[in-house]
Amino acid sequence: MVKSSLNGAHPKAVAAMLKALSKVEFDRDVGRLDDRTAEKYGWRVISSTFPIFDVVFEHESAQPVRLRLICEDWDDLPPSIEILNEDGTYATKVPPQVGSVFNPSNHPSTGRVFVCMRGAREYHTHPSHLNEYWANYRGKSGMDILGIVCQLWRAWKRAVK
Fold first, then answer.
1. CA 154 → CA 99, 105, 147, distances in Å?
2. What are the backbone angles phi and psi of residue 45, rounded to the nearest 5°?
3. Is a pLDDT exceeding 80 seen at residue 2?
4. Among 38, 74, 84, 89, which has the minimal tally of Cβ within 10 Å of its Cβ?
5. Closest alpha carbon to 71 in 37, 29, 109
6. Does pLDDT of 1 surpass 50?
7. pLDDT in the model for residue 38
8. Is the pLDDT assigned to residue 61 strictly greater than 50?
9. Quick count: other Cβ atoms within 10 Å of Cβ 71?
10. In sequence order, what are the residues at sequence separation of 6 or more whose Cβ sits closer than 8 angstroms to the Cβ of residue 91?
11. Alpha carbon 143 to chain centroid, angstroms
């Protein structure tokens, strides 16, 4: 693997190489989303420029929810996922009736409501999930950027009538 063969290289060169690899993997993942699929799901993409994938889930009978995936270390680390209001401000509460994926309590690191699901950095760094290593899920089906977003959309959509 390229990442493990960088031993002995200058730290700045290693950091630049890892960032470049993360960007390639990010672009590959988000590049698979086309306008037709986004429209089918009711997704409005705000940004898909490395390292940010920012998307709004919309439905005529529900309050939109906006998620910003911060993927600067993709896929060595899972994305950090921010739950936002449609205008981009931090949400102070999660969408109603969405189950435990959207956790209404404050995450110990961020102090904000958070996504509590495999594939979210906040899940893997939460004290109750420290034994759920990202390495156990990384590269598996549904654990790419769009797969994680689809899982979140399904959790949100269950509450939409």
1. 11, 21, 11
2. -85, 120
3. no
4. 89
5. 29
6. no
7. 97
8. yes
9. 25
10. 65, 66, 83, 84, 85, 112, 113
11. 10
Q: Report angle CA 126, 134, 117 to the nearest 5 degrees.
A: 55
7-16, 37-46, 111-120: lowest mean pLDDT where? Answer: 7-16
Rounded CA-CA distance 103/111 in Å is 12
Q: Are 149 and 69 a contacting pair, CB within 8 Å?
A: yes
The secondary structure of the chain, three-state, reads CCHHHHCCCCHHHHHHHHHHHHHHHHHHHHCCCCHHHHHHHCEEEEEEECCEEEEEEEECCEEEEEEEEECCCCCCCCCEEEEECCCCCECCCCCCCCCCCEECCCCCCCCCCEECCCCCHHHHCCHHHCCCCHHHCCCCCCCCHHHHHHHHHHHHHHHCC
Q: Token digits for 100?
A: 């435990």
**Taking a C-beta distance cutoff of 8 angstroms, is the pair 82, 112 a contact?**
yes
Q: Among residues of the chain, what percentage have pLDDT more than 90? A: 80
pLDDT at residue 8, as a whole number = 66
How far does CA 1 lie from the centroid of its chain? 24
